[in-house]
């Protein structure tokens, strides 16, 4: 049990604490120090990770209140790496930190290094150091300043400096150097306002600081990849089939992070400079990649680390539920009550399709992703209408007073499609009284009309018609109304209307007929035909058509032949006498 282990400062690394402890109790050798703290004198030490923390936390007094997990999360760089490695790798790394003295596995080393250069010496921010000295009368190594890729202090906007202390040492060669020993008086170098990539570097440092304090982020590289895909698609950098516009993406990346910054971080031939580092993130992940790649990618897509990890692990193309029910005949129309949704990807086009099922039986599908929050009130197709809709539709359809346009508005279906639904529900489709079906195509809106209107309606229409007809002079509105009534009665009460016309209830229909004296005309036309036959005595075979054409009265005779018995007889007589062979 050790009693005088230093109380950690904010963001102090474990390395720094051990260095302060060593200075405080003046251990005779590093080996004995390691033996005391970690139970092994042959341990590797570095400024970023440690090992055998279980032993250390076991010998700290209880009042110290630091568990192995807290040591790992708060004093090592574990939280900076863990969100970007697989769950297995994270567990492996954690168990090694806790109770092994071996080095981390090869896969993790790759994640840690990638193409990113790790600083050989422990770094610090001169302003942070002088602030610490003012407040605590001593200074310490900050975890944030040791992160690969972080080059500036996000608080003071100055460049980080390298100290004389080595960041990593092997076996018995390492030392634990305190910040006070290694750092003299350093003059801070402020970041120029015109420094290329200034904003990127500052945001990177802020994101890294946020990650260090966020210890509950899951290790799920696939979720990261899904979020990248979603953001790329949203920003027009990726098709629905998954084809990434690499040229545009890299152009955007280099605009945000100029090559001079990349060269400082990884030299001139690294994976970020060539673009491979960023492009590897948009492919389905097979291993881990350095956190720096991810942080730069997030910035490139316009997200801070906090915003990015705040996105759902499987970004919803259709927003988060519950979703509205779009059954126009339900009392809960457009209310967000639908929680049952299934999403699949289209075979051709690769776009996501969501099927929403409401408890009222209404089921609709929409091809996504949604273009905005209002898209949830639209659907691509209805897959099932459900009992509530069908019951209400049946009622509307069998109420004769309802016009088709009224029903159409009520149920939210085009008039011409109503009959299809009526047929599907085995409802009667309207036919005329005389038994002839309405000509489809000419007046499509008639198709599927319900049975004859109510007697009361017919009576009201008849009365209105009679009143209008009794008027001698009509104003424009009345004439229009008369036309409307005439057509309505013609359609629904044809027999009665015809009778009215004959009885002189209205002169309208009969006036036209009575203006022509057909008997007179018949006699006249018969004379004309006879005169033609005599006068022109045409040669060759004579047909009825030819004779009518010769008379010059074809427009009068042809359509009205059934009204002209005399003319007809005359025509036949002439033809027979002219063509005696037939
Ligand atoms: Zn600082
Ligand atoms: Zn519903």
How is the topology of this model organized?
Layout: H1 14-25, H2 30-38, E1 45-46, H3 53-59, H4 68-75, H5 78-81, H6 87-99, H7 106-113, E2 121-124, H8 126-136, E3 152-153, E4 158-159, E5 161-166, E6 168-169, H9 179-182, H10 198-213, H11 221-234, H12 246-256, H13 259-266, H14 271-274, H15 276-281, H16 291-300, H17 305-310, E7 323-324, E8 336-338, E9 340-345, E10 352-357, E11 363-367, E12 381-384, H18 386-397, H19 404-411, H20 415-424, H21 455-470, H22 476-492, H23 494-502, H24 508-515, H25 518-536, H26 544-551, H27 554-557, H28 565-578
Antiparallel strand pairs: 1-6, 2-5, 3-4, 7-8, 9-10, 10-11, 11-12
Helix pairs in contact: 10-16, 12-16, 21-22, 22-23, 25-26, 25-28
One zinc ion (ZN) binds at residues 325, 327, 330, 332, 358, 360, 362.
Characterization of this structure:
With 582 residues, this protein is of the alpha+beta class. It has 5 domains: 14-182, no CATH class; 220-309, no CATH class; 323-384, no CATH class; 455-502, no CATH class; 518-578. 47% of the residues lie in helices and 8% in strands. It is built from 28 helices and 12 strands. The strands form 5 sheets. Strands 9-10-11-12 form a 4-stranded antiparallel sheet, with no helix packed on it. Strands 1-6 form a two-stranded antiparallel ribbon. The protein starts with 13 loop residues before the first helix and ends with a helix. Mean pLDDT is 82; it is low at 431-447 and 509-513. One zinc ion binds next to loops. One zinc ion (ZN) binds next to loops.
């Amino acid at each position: 049990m050790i009693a005088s282990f230093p109380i950690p400062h904010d963001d102090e690394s474990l390395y720094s604490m051990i260095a302060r402890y060593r200075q405080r109790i003046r251990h005779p050798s590093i080996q004995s120090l390691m033996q005391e703290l970690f139970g092994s004198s042959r341990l590797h030490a570095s400024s970023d990770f440690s090992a055998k923390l279980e032993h250390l936390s076991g010998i700290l007094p209880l009042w110290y209140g630091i568990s192995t997990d807290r040591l790992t999360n708060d004093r090592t760089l574990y939280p900076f790496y863990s969100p970007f490695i697989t769950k297995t790798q994270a567990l492996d790394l954690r168990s090694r930190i806790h109770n092994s003295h071996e080095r981390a596995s090869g896969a993790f080393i790759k994640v840690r290094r990638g193409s990113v250069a790790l600083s050989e010496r422990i770094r610090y921010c001169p302003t942070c150091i002088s602030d610490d000295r003012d407040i605590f009368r001593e200074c310490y190594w900050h975890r944030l300043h040791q992160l690969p890729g972080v080059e500036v202090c996000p608080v003071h906007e100055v460049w980080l400096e390298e100290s004389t202390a080595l960041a990593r040492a092997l076996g018995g060669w390492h030392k634990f150097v305190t910040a006070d020993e290694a750092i003299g008086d350093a003059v801070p170098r402020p970041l120029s306002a015109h420094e290329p990539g200034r904003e990127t570097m500052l945001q990177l440092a802020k994101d890294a600081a946020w990650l260090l304090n966020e210890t509950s982020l899951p290790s799920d590289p696939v979720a990261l990849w899904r979020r990248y895909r979603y953001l790329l698609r949203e920003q027009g950098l990726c098709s629905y089939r998954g084809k990434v516009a690499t040229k545009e993406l890299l152009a955007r990346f280099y605009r945000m992070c100029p090559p001079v910054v990349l060269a400082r971080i990884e030299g001139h031939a690294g994976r970020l400079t060539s673009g491979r580092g960023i492009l590897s993130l948009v492919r389905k992940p097979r291993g881990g990649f350095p956190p720096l790649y991810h942080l730069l990618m997030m910035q490139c897509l316009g997200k801070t680390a906090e915003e990015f990890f705040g996105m759902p692990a499987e970004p919803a193309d259709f927003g988060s539920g519950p979703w509205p029910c779009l059954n126009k005949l339900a009392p809960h129309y457009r209310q967000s009550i639908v929680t049952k949704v299934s999403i699949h990807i289209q075979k051709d086009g690769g776009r996501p399709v969501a099927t929403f099922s409401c408890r009222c039986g209404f089921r609709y599908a929409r091809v996504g992703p949604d273009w905005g929050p209002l898209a949830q009130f639209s659907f691509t197709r209805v897959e099932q209408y459900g009992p509530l809709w069908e019951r209400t539709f049946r009622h509307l359809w069998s109420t004769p007073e309802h016009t088709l346009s009224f029903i159409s508005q009520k149920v939210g279906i085009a008039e011409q499609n109503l009959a299809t639904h009526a047929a599907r529900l085995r409802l009667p489709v309207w036919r005329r009284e005389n038994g002839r079906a309405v000509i489809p195509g000419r007046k499509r809106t008639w198709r599927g009309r319900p049975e004859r209107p109510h007697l009361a309606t017919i009576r009201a229409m008849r009365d209105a018609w009679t009143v209008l007809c009794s008027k001698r002079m009509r104003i424009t509105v009345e004439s229009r109304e008369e036309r409307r009534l005439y057509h309505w009665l013609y359609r629904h009460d044809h027999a009665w209307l015809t009778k009215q016309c004959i009885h002189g209830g209205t002169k309208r229909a009969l006036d036209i007929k009575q203006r022509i004296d057909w008997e007179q005309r018949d006699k006249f036309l018969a004379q004309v035909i006879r005169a033609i036959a005599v006068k022109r005595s045409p040669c060759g075979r004579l047909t009825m058509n030819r004779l009518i054409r010769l008379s010059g009265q074809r427009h009068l005779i042809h359509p009205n032949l059934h009204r002209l018995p005399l003319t007809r007889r005359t025509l036949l007589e002439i033809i027979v006498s002219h063509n005696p062979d037939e």
